[in-house]
Design goal:
Blueprint (H helix, E strand, L loop, with lengths): L1 E10 L7 E11 L4 E6 L5 H9 L6 E6 L2 E2 L5 H4 L3 E4 L13 H9 L13 H12 L18 H13 L5 E5 L7 H18 L3 E4 L3 H6 L3 E6 L2 E7 H5 L3 H12 L6 H5 L1
Parallel strand pairs: 3-8, 3-9, 6-7, 7-8
Antiparallel strand pairs: 1-2, 1-4, 4-5, 9-10
């Protein structure tokens, strides 16, 4: 479903601040595969997701999505194939619009629009059923402005909006990092339910090693813009946090992982 062929990205090239964020990185995701991505600050995790989403052009390499070359496709066109949930709950929704209106925007993404605007009765019933599945009571507040929701409610809604059209690829960019532990656990559980239910191909960035081990079918670790560890199957299931730290040290050549990785 996703194929990255030796993609590279350097920020501020030709200056003293030049930084190689992706270093000839290659990665293949099969359809329905759920891959967690972990690594320290500056490892290239968010740059990887932004490159796939088309947030900026890459310097070299090729990006294929479901067999289609999207390397030079602009971000707004890729959005028709992708779903994305950001770290900040304030991103991904329109705060001054109602819950049902936000869902309508997501459901109609990529479709031709006329002059008529409004949420139909049939759409509203569909959204009510989707919201009920979250178990947060939002189905009874569909006319509420999204800006009035809590961070966890808003992130759950963003997750629903990102997956309502069943995207070819779901990108989860540390989407629980800004939430308190209890709410983060709920949003992560919802994420796994939706991914399993719809069989979505998913790439999830996290700093939390326990989450990286517990979620998905495959785990990759990045360092210096490269993939230094790629584990799946029984090898991943047997992993512990201590094992992961030891493997990271061996792969990266550093004795200790960074504080953010350890504290998570």
């Amino acid at each position: 479903m996703l194929e990255l062929k030796e993609i590279t990205k350097t920020f501020h090239p030709g200056t003293v601040n030049a930084r190689r964020a992706l270093d000839r990185l290659s990665l293949t995701l099969e359809e329905g595969e759920f891959v967690t991505v972990i690594g320290g600050n500056g490892a290239g995790k968010s740059t990887l997701l932004n490159a796939v989403a088309g947030a900026f052009p890459i310097d070299g390499g090729q990006i294929l999505l479901d067999g289609q070359d999207v390397t030079h496709m602009p971000e707004h066109r890729r959005a028709a194939f992708l779903g994305r949930v950001f770290q900040d709950p304030m991103m991904g929704t329109a705060p001054t619009m109602q819950i049902d209106e936000n869902l309508a925007l997501a459901a109609r993404r990529g479709r031709r629009r006329g002059l008529k605007w409004g949420v139909t009765r049939a759409e509203r019933e569909e959204y009510r059923a989707l919201l009920a599945g979250l178990g947060l009571g939002l189905e009874d507040r569909m006319s509420a402005k999204v800006g009035l929701l809590s961070g966890g409610q808003r992130q759950a809604l963003t997750l629903l909006m990102a997956t309502v059209r069943r995207p070819k690829l779901l990108l989860l960019d540390e989407h629980t990092a800004a939430l308190d532990p209890k709410t983060a656990g709920k949003v992560l559980e919802l994420s796994q339910q939706i991914v399993r239910r719809d069989g979505l191909t998913t790439l999830m960035i996290t700093h939390n090693m326990k989450d990286a081990i517990a979620c998905g079918s495959r785990l990759i670790m990045m360092d210096g813009g490269r993939i230094v560890l790629d584990l799946a199957g029984e090898e991943k299931r047997r992993l512990t946090v201590a094992d992961l730290l030891e493997r990271f040290s061996a792969a990266s050549g550093r004795e200790e992982a960074e504080d953010k990785l350890l504290l998570s």
